[in-house]
Amino acid sequence: MGRKTEFFIVFTIILAVITTVFLPVIITTTSVGYHRHHLPTHPEDPPLDFPTNASRFLQSNGFNFIANLIHVSPELFLSTPESTIFAIPDSVMSNISIPPYMTIGLITYHISPNKLTIQDLFQKPLNTCLTTMFQQQKISITKKDEKNQLLEINNVLVTKPDLFIHGSVAIHGVNGPFASFKFHPEINELPVCSMNQSRLSNSTVDANLDFMKIKAEWKMVVKFLSSSGFTPFAFWLYNLLDEIVKDHPHLHSMTIFAPPIIEVMEIPAPAKHKFLRSHMVPKKHSFKHLASMPRGASILTLCPGKEIDITGTVGNLSDGLFSVNGVEITSPDLLSSRSFVVHGIARAFAIDGVVKV
């Protein structure tokens, strides 16, 4: 998506927000039936009438935000030959506080490049994943009960199945967003996808979910580091992230000691692994906890045979100065989440063959 196109879409979203809040009706409704009924529509109008027809019908069913967006920027929804749109109601959109550029990601995560009616969705096995228009990310069928006409995607109920069917487009109403953008403009809660499109055992589902949650949190840490003055370290961590997560799939807490500059730019891959893992501890240690440890104590790292030694305070502890491996912690508790804590350090630890002090 080019900069001009993205700028136009951002402007369109802002316009959609304004019109949704301040103008109850943007398009004059020509049929009273749109307001009296909430039944799915299957119009026979030419495809070019889709934006107008869809907008009218969505507005009459409480989806003004999506309706306005479809009307003024249909290319966002019709960039592929077919599409399925999962519409979020106004009552939910009004409570989502994210900037316009993140709204693009949120909306496109609710668009699949295939036409899928409710019967098409019911015919797919549980945990089947569907590709979306947001960076090819997936959504998953997490619950289905065809007898009672109940279907959930990413654990969100489809409240208005087959709300609007027109040619190569299907629109379903849902009662909430499929994902949350808690820290950054990316999907933080990824669905569990069945590799063979069949039902997975609970243990397999739980394992896959844990893996994806851990990887998502790792990405959040990388993005934070890259925007906080630790770009070289973040770059190496990003490139080796998949391998670290695969090697430690059950790693639920972590302490990272991040240097702002890495002195050696070109080193062999095994040495990169050694370097990174020597700065990572498979347990969460706050600055307060580190400071409470006696001088000479050591903590294990992800690098076999490598430890981080508590070498004592530098000046007064009340000033927040403390050293490990003889290196000062300059930014204690730089990032602290449920699973991670990041401490900024003055320089990289001395590692044989990688970094020398």
Automatic annotation (TrEMBL):
Protein name, per record: FAS1 domain-containing protein
FAS1 domain sequence ranges: 84-181, 255-352
Family: Belongs to the fasciclin-like AGP family.
InterPro entries noted in UniProt: FAS1_dom_sf, FAS1_domain, Fasciclin-like_AGP
Natural source organism: Mikania micrantha
Keyword flag Mitochondrion: no
Taxonomic superkingdom: Eukaryota
Keyword Transcription regulation in record: no
Residue intervals passing through the bilayer: 7-27
Keywords: Membrane, Transmembrane, Transmembrane helix
